[in-house]
Amino acid sequence: MEELLISIFCDVDDFCKVYEECCQKHLITNGKNVIHKSSMSISEIMTIVIFFHLSNHKTFKWYYKNYICETLQEYFPNFVSYNRFVELMQLIIVPLTLYLIKFRFGKCSGISFLDSTTIDVCNNHRIYSHKVFKDFAKRGKTSTGWFYGFKLHLIVNDRGDILSFYLTPGNVDDRNWEVISYMTKEIFGKLFADRGYLSQELFEKLYQKDIILITRLKKNMKNKLMAMQDKLLLRKRSIIETINDFLKNICQIEHTRHRSINNFIVNLLSGLVGYSFLPKKPSICPDSFFLEA
Known about the structure:
This protein is an alpha/beta fold and 293 residues long. It has two domains: 2-103, no CATH class; 107-255, Nucleotidyltransferase, domain 5. Helix content is 43%, strand content 16%. The chain has eleven helices and six strands. The chain has helices spanning 2-26, 42-52, 60-71, 82-89, 93-104, 177-183, 200-208, 228-235, 238-249, 261-276, 286-292, and strands spanning 111-120, 138-142, 145-157, 162-169, 189-193, 211-215. Strands 1, 2, 3, 4, 5 and 6 form a six-stranded mixed beta sheet that branches.
């Protein structure tokens, strides 16, 4: 685990050097320094929040106070109090977002998978008393029932790498063109999805962008001819559902203990970055399908 920690820090620190240099050159200021000054650097803060999602700890407070400040004290000798660290976490939203998009996204191979997953922010029984996300979260419905929170829309490649993501309130339709149009800017080739994305209009819009949307048909629809390779790959669409499971149960992007929207965003972004550092991701081997066909 310590080798992984060092690897994350080195990669993050290289990014932060470039990021801070760009900030000093391009940000408009009133003469004051826009880069925060603290005993902990931005790269240290980012490393700590990313490593949390790979450490198997369930609560960030215990992880920071007992693991970072004691077990890993030699790696972070200038650590601050827990309350101060929570304040500093809000300052890394922008660099964490840039780091995820520019350095930790995978590359499109022409075979991609699309899906969304729910991010609950509270138990359904507490919806009317919940205040933290009152102006942001919405009630939505999936095949498993009603929920209150957000939807995380994802596109991944056949190697299990995240290619794009989009966070929306829970009541946004999976087929929302504004969401899908943004997510497919760098996507090409074939895009596999479940029946929830079945739409002639969506298919035609994606086709104009040189993207072929392939989904299963509903039971009351007539069968259509499909290439054997596409049929075999469509059966492997569950790879993205496995990735969603990894994000929730291993990287812990979902919990109901948030006390601010900023810390929720930091937890989500750092969880996505943490997933990119997993040594083994769910993946498939498309070449084997072509050989079989």
